[in-house]
Write a structure and sequence with these properties.
Blueprint (H helix, E strand, L loop, with lengths): L1 H11 L3 H24 L11 H24 L3 E5 L4 E4 L5 H19 L8 E6 L7 E7 L7 E4 L10 H14 L4 H17 L28 H11 L9
Antiparallel strand pairs: 1-2, 3-4, 4-5
Length: 246
């Protein structure tokens, strides 16, 4: 934690490419920490595996988030999203300054009450999510050095099983939604689907529709809804050879 905090301080005091570099470093440290505590301890391949310890760590995290949500709701705040390490609330603030002051005050109070560090990170306005865990998009209005940035988590703009047109189209849809142009997002989506179904559109070359990802044996997937798995099955139904699967 101390190492990540030190790197985050360097990130916040930097700009441009240097800021992006330190942001990548702090995210890498975060992933390593989460992997060790939440996953490796309970994994059978780890030399020091301890299922009870791994379960206790994740259970503590869930319990902390649950208590945090309960405290926020008792204070009258609407919790609009939460997962293993974050909670989003509807602040009701009339300005960014008011939202920042509220977030800073709440994080300090809840940290004292819970005995853990609750960090206030950002303000987003607006925020979009269809309700699935770790899937949301929002426009950052605080901190100032990230103002205007569109943050996307979980959707296909960041996933390796998507194809170029899907990522581009979804990014444009989020851009319109976060401009509060819902009608524009709907019309744009319908137009893209029509053009793909019609085929032959010079602005949509075939390479933009390619999913560049291999597929293992189908019984190794828990989620058969994965795009690359569905496409591979469809290819076999159309006469493709199973040997085309990696």
């Amino acid at each position: 934690m101390e190492k990540r905090d030190a790197v985050k301080r360097l990130m916040k005091s930097s700009t441009g490419e240097e800021r992006e570099y330190w942001d990548g470093i702090q995210n890498a440290i975060k992933v390593l920490m989460n992997t060790f505590y939440g996953g490796v301890m309970a994994s059978p391949f780890y030399r020091f595996t301890n299922v009870d310890l791994g379960s206790a760590v994740t259970s503590f995290a869930r319990d902390t988030i649950t208590r945090l949500i309960d405290r926020l709701e008792k204070r009258g705040f609407r919790v609009i999203y939460g997962d293993t390490d974050s909670v989003f609330i509807e602040s009701g603030a009339k300005s960014v300054k008011e939202a920042v002051e509220l977030g800073s005050r709440l994080s300090a109070e809840l940290s004292r009450e819970e005995g853990v560090t609750i960090e206030f990170e950002k303000v987003m306005d607006p925020l979009f999510s269809h309700g699935a865990k770790k899937r949301y998009a929002g426009k950052i209005v605080y901190p100032e050095d990230a103002k205007g940035t569109i943050l996307v988590r979980g959707y296909e703009t960041r996933r390796t099983d998507s194809f170029d047109l899907q990522s581009e189209a979804l990014a444009r849809v989020f851009d319109l939604i976060l401009q509060r142009d819902i009608e524009g997002a709907i019309n744009y989506s319908k137009d893209i689907v029509r053009r793909v179904l019609r085929g032959g559109d010079p602005s949509i070359p075939l390479e933009k529709l390619v999913i560049s990802r291999s597929v293992k044996s189908f019984d190794s997937y828990e989620q058969e809804s994965l795009a690359n798995v569905r496409v591979a099955k469809k290819l076999i139904e159309m006469g493709g050879r199973p040997s085309c699967l990696a």
